[in-house]
From TrEMBL:
<dbReference type="Pfam" id="PF17836">
    <property type="entry name" value="PglD_N"/>
</dbReference>
<dbReference type="Pfam" id="PF00132">
    <property type="entry name" value="Hexapep"/>
</dbReference>
<dbReference type="InterPro" id="IPR001451">
    <property type="entry name" value="Hexapep"/>
</dbReference>
<dbReference type="InterPro" id="IPR011004">
    <property type="entry name" value="Trimer_LpxA-like_sf"/>
</dbReference>
<feature type="binding site">
    <location>
        <position position="135"/>
    </location>
    <ligand>
        <name>acetyl-CoA</name>
    </ligand>
</feature>
<feature type="site" description="Increases basicity of active site His">
    <location>
        <position position="127"/>
    </location>
</feature>
<feature type="binding site">
    <location>
        <position position="60"/>
    </location>
    <ligand>
        <name>substrate</name>
    </ligand>
</feature>
<dbReference type="GO" id="GO:0016746">
    <property type="term" value="F:acyltransferase activity"/>
</dbReference>
<comment type="similarity">
    <text>Belongs to the transferase hexapeptide repeat family.</text>
</comment>
<dbReference type="InterPro" id="IPR041561">
    <property type="entry name" value="PglD_N"/>
</dbReference>
<dbReference type="InterPro" id="IPR020019">
    <property type="entry name" value="AcTrfase_PglD-like"/>
</dbReference>
<feature type="binding site">
    <location>
        <begin position="7"/>
        <end position="9"/>
    </location>
    <ligand>
        <name>substrate</name>
    </ligand>
</feature>
<feature type="active site" description="Proton acceptor">
    <location>
        <position position="126"/>
    </location>
</feature>
<keyword id="KW-0012">Acyltransferase</keyword>
<feature type="domain" description="PglD N-terminal">
    <location>
        <begin position="2"/>
        <end position="69"/>
    </location>
</feature>
<protein>
    <submittedName>
        <fullName>Sugar O-acyltransferase (Sialic acid O-acetyltransferase NeuD family)</fullName>
    </submittedName>
</protein>
<dbReference type="InterPro" id="IPR050179">
    <property type="entry name" value="Trans_hexapeptide_repeat"/>
</dbReference>
Amino acid sequence: MYIYGASGHGRVIIDLIESYEKIHGIFDDNPEKKEILGYPVLGPIPKNYVFKSSLFIAIGDNATRKRLALELSSRVRFANIIHDSAIFSKRAFLGSGCVVMEGAIIKVNCTLGDQVIINTGASVDHDCLIGDYVHIAPQATLCGGITVGEGSLIGANAIILPGVKIGKWCTIGAGSIVHQDIPDGHKWIGNKLILDPAPLIIVK
């Protein structure tokens, strides 16, 4: 597997896979990144680079991950990573380029889109629909029947109550309790909607 990203999320991914997966190369656009966890960083991906294996985009920022996935989708297959300690229902569905980290739970009839991060100990209950480029942070809890739109971030230890619909490119603050639907591009902090919406990010 190749890895794109040599910062914090890259270290997490290397630590997850190196015991069972050969790492063919690690790329990063930052010229100051020379090494990560003992592996050399090869720099940016050359335009005509021929991949010998799948690639994982190890970048936590949702908009950046989307941009890179769209740029590279015609050149390489994206890997999925599910940690052995995670519980992933045989009746759940997974896109490409996703990671489900230690202790996470994905229940029956859930659908994860492409390039989704389900972080450590997060719980996604039955019949949830998670859009592309979403990040569910550590220990977040999504009850049943929730929809999370493209690019949204669910903060650590947030709780989303059953049936709530979260729009695209929303931000849910850490520790929040969400009890109502949230429009595209908005923020929710604590137990209330922030009326001044965050800019809606559209990446073509």
